[in-house]
Amino acid sequence: xxxxxxxxxxxxxxxxxxxxxxxxxxxxxxxxxxxxxxxxxxxxxxxxxxxxxxxxxxxxxxxxxxxxxxxxxxxxxxxxxxxxxxxxxxxxxxxxxxxxxxxxxxxxxxxxxxxxxxxxxxxxxxxxxxxxxxxxxxxxxxxxxxxxxxxxxxxxxxxxxxxxxxxxxxxxxxxxxxxxxxxxxxxxxxxxxxxxxxxxxxxxxxxxxxxxxxxxxxxxxxxxxxxxxxxxxxxxxxxxxxxxxxxxxxxxxxxxxxxxxxxxxxxxxxxxxxxxxxxxxx
Length: 282
Description:
By secondary structure, the protein is α+β, with helices and mostly antiparallel strands.
């Protein structure tokens, strides 16, 4: 299971902002020699009057510094994922610009392109499938969960949903509980492959963490466990012997304590009888 680490966006800003314009990277471009990154337009404007890196002042190329720069799609994808709404806002600005300037260069695109496969906007709707598995991890196709309101839900087939990207795993668990009419003793866990998902994960988080490419619905699994019937895990190997040994020692200690108490009681009674005899003699 992936460990959840929460950070403020302000903590990441030094790593995802352009040193030239102080804004988030747009069309991120990296210098091959020193690996410093900039917005493409910012770097090209700088290289129009200089052949050195704006940060470390290293010489990029003696004749054509553009040969020493390269588009950094991984960095740009990361920025779009980290900054909500940035991709949508950038595409809107491009559409407005090219609408006002139809004869300008189209190298950056007019903003009409669809979402890249790895960028998910929190306002869009995503396709999700839910499939029931037994607690052991096998797909439930044998009808053994037929008691779970099967008149309303076909448990042999996946349940397909169109969900907001901001919908959480906790919401999906609540949906399953209501749809199947589960009792308070029955708990629901949702998985992506073998990983149990945290309740505060959103569908967008799952798509980002597991690199969902939109080649089909986001496939999730859920398991239902009856807490009242849950079996206790077996003790570790060799632990049963220690338990029996400890129990035997405890029983012996209990027997020894009882015998000692009996001896003390007998001694007390004998002492009392001796005192009575002494009093009668006097």
